[in-house]
């Protein structure tokens, strides 16, 4: 009679991570993809909306960017409320409110109404992305985290693919049931968020301890692996000031601000930019944006997986930043499709490739509730770039009559981001040496009892 041996520790770990990946990452990825689509679908709506409502590029850029001001203001409170109420309830609440507000955008008629609705949408969505990043730190050990982030965050470029593929068809519903095409686009793309809120509420466990689909051994393995990691204990401080006390939070926030400034300056102008350069129809413009999304997804998966395999983070951020900067310089130096379209590929692939390695860094020096506050703080500082970028592009377009000057100047903050990640790396090395010498205690560490 064969003897059945108990599973090894390694087999238990593989099984636990596989279950977490299959059960959580697709759900979170779909949720974030819908969030991003509802955040930027006004870029396609603008192809009709700006003309019908008589919005200038500056007005549109201001309204598009105001989303990020209210979003930033509510980031830390939202993430701390997630810790208090649990990821299942809080993320579901976020999704249903932003979905309803996104659908209500169809009633906008004036610049003031547009700006107010964008502010409200920012309040509603605040905390979703940093909440998800914090949530994943409670499931995946450091060595698996970049891959996990890239697998859910791949929804960001793929949402551009879906949006690009659908936008032309939705805009062509112009006049149906008395609604303009841009109204159909905003209305129908808001529905999935409301539906997904129910999926999150019913299917998302608050953490490994409450996941019924894990065995006791798998649950214990995840909790033990996280407990054994420096700075990754399950409990930490509620105090946001503790997270702000580490300079890396400020530096990472500044870096994220630079790259989001550049990315959203492009994103909210992308359909109009591609149409201006190529002269193609709305449907064909949407397909180009869709292809860019696929290429961005491939870059994100490849760089995130390679970063985990090698254990290196910083070069996996710096190289994509310089690729991104080259793209902005090239796109800002020409109006020829043969130059601009490949430049857009570099811009999109550079931005997406750096995301997963970037978001593994905070969990290396923050933990528990302090990590919730710190990750939200980084995103709060960074998301301000989402206001500056679209607003600057709108002003630049109105002043110069084209996109090139705005794109060219935006290469500067991207290069600045590369400088900031170098400073963060050197600071982290210095702090690690000092800790080894017993000279300091980690910022996120609780006092010994």
| SS element count, helices | 20
> What fraction of residues sit in β-strands?
under 5%
- State the total count of DSSP E strands: 0
Radius of gyration: 22 Å
How many domains, as an integer? 1
Question: What is the second-level CATH architecture?
Answer: Up-down Bundle
Content-based structural category:
mainly alpha
The largest sheet is:
none
CATH class: Mainly Alpha
CATH fold topology = Growth Hormone, Chain: A
Low-confidence stretches: 231-238, 443-449
Give the overall pLDDT as a whole number: 85
CATH superfamily grouping: MFS general substrate transporter like domains
Q: What helical percentage do the residues reach?
A: over 70%
Instruction: Based on Cα principal axes, name the global outline.
Output: globular
Distance between the termini: 52 Å
Architecture overview:
The protein is mainly alpha-helical. The chain has 20 helices and no strands. The C terminus is likely disordered.
Descriptive terms for the model:
Growth Hormone, Chain: A, mainly alpha, disordered C terminus, 449 residues
Topology:
Blueprint: H1 9-40, H2 42-53, H3 57-73, H4 75-85, H5 87-104, H6 111-125, H7 128-137, H8 142-153, H9 155-171, H10 181-203, H11 216-228, H12 240-244, H13 247-267, H14 270-278, H15 282-310, H16 315-332, H17 337-360, H18 368-383, H19 385-400, H20 404-436
